[in-house]
């Protein structure tokens, strides 16, 4: 009886070893990753008829007034190659912005659909940030298409806070699994 138990344990061990060495089930640490960096620009419009940001909730909330806790804006902004409004469109950034108890603090969650040379898909991100800062970071949580399995962050910088047509720079710093 002891011999049978030892033989079956050895058989299970050898089977597991064969499966792991075949690559069918490979450990995550063996996965191959690549660093990807690129820059693009978000263009908003607060002027009809092409408005890209709308306040949907809040007491006396406006896009240009002082925000209060709970003000919620939704957006579907245009992404372009450069800060110039004449540059090529490469996608959209859609999500929501929530004002926090400190009027300068906000919480943002969004999905960006991006098509650039060699890459096409969506990137999901969220962060708590202060609009009075010139720059901040937003954590990337996932992606689809060419960005499937994305990790990393965006460095976000204000280029122009023109009350009608603000422009924001995104520097993507991503780690992507090789597919």
From TrEMBL:
Source superkingdom: Eukaryota
Regions annotated as coiled coil: none
Signal peptide stretch: 1-30
InterPro entries: Allene_oxi_cyc_Dirigent, Dirigent
Pfam families associated with the record: Dirigent (PF03018)
One Gene Ontology term from the biological process aspect of the record: phenylpropanoid biosynthetic process
Gene Ontology CC terms, in alphabetical order: apoplast
Assigned keywords, A-Z: Apoplast, Secreted, Signal
Localization in the cell: Secreted, Extracellular space, Apoplast
Reported function: Dirigent proteins impart stereoselectivity on the phenoxy radical-coupling reaction, yielding optically active lignans from two molecules of coniferyl alcohol in the biosynthesis of lignans, flavonolignans, and alkaloids and thus plays a central role in plant secondary metabolism.
Family label: Belongs to the plant dirigent protein family.
Oligomeric form and interacting partners: Homodimer.
Name of the protein in its database record: Dirigent protein
Organism, as annotated: Marchantia polymorpha
């Amino acid at each position: 009886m002891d011999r049978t138990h030892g033989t079956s344990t050895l058989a299970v061990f050898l089977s597991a070893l064969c499966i792991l060495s075949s690559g069918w089930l490979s450990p995550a640490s063996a996965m191959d990753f690549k660093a990807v960096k690129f820059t693009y620009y978000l263009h908003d419009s607060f002027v009809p008829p092409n408005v890209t940001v709308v306040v949907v909730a809040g007491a006396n909330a406006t896009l240009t007034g002082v925000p209060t806790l709970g003000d919620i804006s939704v957006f579907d902004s245009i992404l372009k190659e450069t800060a110039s409004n004449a540059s090529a469109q490469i996608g959209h950034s859609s999500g929501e912005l929530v004002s926090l108890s400190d009027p300068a603090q906000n919480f943002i969650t969004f999905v960006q659909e991006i098509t650039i040379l060699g890459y096409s898909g969506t990137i999901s991100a969220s962060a708590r940030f202060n609009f009075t800062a010139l720059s901040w970071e937003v954590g990337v949580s996932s992606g689809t298409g060419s960005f499937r399995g994305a990790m990393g962050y965006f460095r976000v910088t204000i280029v122009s806070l023109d009350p009608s047509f603000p422009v924001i720079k995104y520097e993507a710093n991503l780690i992507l699994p090789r597919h």
